[in-house]
Specification:
- With 332 residues, the chain is α+β, with helices and mostly antiparallel strands.
- The chain folds into two domains: 170 residues, no CATH class; 124 residues, Cyclophilin (Beta Barrel), CATH 2.40.100.
- It contains five helices and 21 strands.
- The strands form three sheets. Strands 1, 2, 3, 4, 5, 6, 7, 8, 9, 10, 11 and 21 form a twelve-stranded antiparallel sheet that branches.
- The model has no long low-confidence stretch (mean pLDDT 91).
């Protein structure tokens, strides 16, 4: 029997993602790809994978069939359990047939990535496995009962390991931006209002855009522009004045003025904020944004550390050990 990853359960928005289908925006095709590219790369590099399952707050439950699989997980601080035993939110583990891996929303973070060593035996669409549900491109969102074929499965580690990537511990509440490109559509007072406000991630947020709740940002020259290309992290101000931060499933072009764009190094931090959480924006220079981006990828390219997982002792494990080395009398 060939190796497969079985899906026992999957909440809304659990999808297959690779780095995205780039170069097609001119034809109206959205790149898609991971919401948190840095966390995705930690998982795929650790496992030796060509893609990953992006797990949303709805969680997922997975099993292996046919072989023990090498599985890496990274992203938000989710509740990760292997056969009920809690694991770190960034880890590498062997998933043996008969074992069950569960991922549920934990203390923080909105997305985590499950990468399986080897290749997913799925046919790419326009050169990519990235799922874009709105346009029905790529694999369907995962659901209970799905089975993902794994080819060229990588060797699994002997036991769970902790993945060490210190830069994943980010300050998601302070997001750096480059002002523009349409700052001329806003008075200076409105730009300052945007930068000084305490924003809240709205409930109407998804992979396409995060709606920000706070003060209305007023336009000086109307709220319509000739539609132009948009990048992930572009912050549009529509007619109601409520900013929209465009995310991985953004539309290729947009016709609202963009007051600012999130710097590349902070896109993952923004993505990991949940509805109801707050953030502030800080404007930086082009040189600062480029330096942050370079430092971010230098940290990723440096690789991910690993160390064996030392599980906390349970009552059962303590009772199974000989913990007494001898006995002495207090009278001696």
């Amino acid at each position: 029997m060939s190796a497969r990853l079985l899906v026992d359960a999957a909440g809304p928005g659990v999808t297959i993602q690779d780095e995205g289908r780039f170069g097609l925006s001119r034809y109206g095709v959205t790149p898609a790809g991971p919401m948190d590219l840095g966390a995705y790369l930690v998982a795929t590099q650790a496992a030796g994978a060509d893609s990953a399952i992006e797990v949303s707050l709805g969680g997922a439950a997975l099993r292996a069939e046919g072989a023990t699989l090498c599985v890496a997980i990274a992203g938000g601080d989710f509740d990760i359990r292997l056969d009920g035993t809690r694991l770190p939110s960034a880890c590498l583990l062997p998933l043996a047939p008969g074992s069950r891996l569960t991922l549920r929303a934990g203390p923080s973070g909105a997305w985590c990535y499950v990468a399986v060593g080897g290749m997913l035996g799925l046919a790419p669409t326009l050169g990519s496995l990235a799922t874009h549900a709105r346009s029905d491109l790529g694999p369907k969102p995962l659901a209970a009962g799905d089975a993902l074929p794994i080819t060229d499965a990588a060797a699994a580690p002997p036991g769970p390991q902790v993945l060490i990537a210190p830069w994943l511990a980010r300050d998601n509440a302070l997001i750096r931006v480059l002002l523009g490109p349409q700052t001329d559509y806003f008075a200076q007072a409105e730009i300052e209002r945007f930068l000084s406000a305490r924003w809240r991630i709205g409930a109407l947020s998804d992979r396409m855009a995060y709606r920000l709740e706070g003060p209305a940002i007023r336009h000086a020259r109307g709220h319509d522009i000739v539609s132009d290309g948009v990048a992930m992290g572009a912050i549009q101000i529509p007619g109601d004045g409520a900013p929209l931060a465009l995310m991985a499933d953004r539309q290729p072009t947009g016709g609202y003025p963009k007051i600012a764009t999130v710097v590349g190094a902070d896109l993952g931090g923004l993505a990991q904020l949940r509805p109801g959480e707050h953030l502030f924006f800080r404007a930086v220079s082009w040189d600062e944004a480029v330096a942050a981006r370079r430092a971010h990828f230098a940290a990723i390219e440096a690789g991910v550390g690993r160390e064996p997982l030392h599980a906390e002792p349970t009552t059962e494990s303590l009772l199974a050990e000989n913990l007494v080395g001898g006995v002495v009398s207090a009278k001696d």
